[in-house]
Amino acid sequence: MTQLSRQPCEACRKHSPTVSEAEIKLFKPEVPEWRIVKRDGIMQLERAFTFDDFRQALAFTNRVGEIAEAAGHHPALLTEWGRVTVNWWTHKINGLHRNDFILAARTDEVAK
Ligand SMILES: C[C@H](O)[C@H](O)[C@H]1CNC2=NC(N)=NC(=O)C2=N1
Questions:
Q1: For residue 93, which atom of ligand 1 is closest to its CA?
Q2: Which atom of ligand 1 is found nearest the CA of 103?
Q3: Could you give the ipTM of this predicted complex?
Q4: Mean pLDDT, consecutive 10-residue segments, the chain of 112 residues?
Q5: Domain 21-111 maps to which CATH number in 3.40.50.2300, 3.30.1360.20, 3.40.50.300, 3.30.450.20?
């Protein structure tokens, strides 16, 4: 499989299926630092990134915003002094789509 972050996002429609167990087994190893959590009954990918101060946390937040805008797919972002918590899920299907794994992989790339 080509590197997850390089894969194109696919159009996600209202009735698109959520990721299967088999897809999770395929994709999750490519984003090992992310947890699959359930928030408000919705499966999400979540990771907290730490930084030396607020300015660096904010700069990372904006980099994630840029990749989200480029993909037309957006996370929940909690930006604090020294930490940014990122949650990816697909609103249209109230759950996880392959796009969320792709964007999580891209998020890791802009954290470096
Ligand atoms: C109209 C707009 O493209 C859609 O609402 C997009 C925007 N960004 C999105 N982001 C996420 N995470 N899920 C969506 O379903 C979604 N839909």
A1: 15
A2: 12
A3: 0.95
A4: 84 88 97 97 98 98 98 98 98 96 98 90
A5: 3.30.1360.20
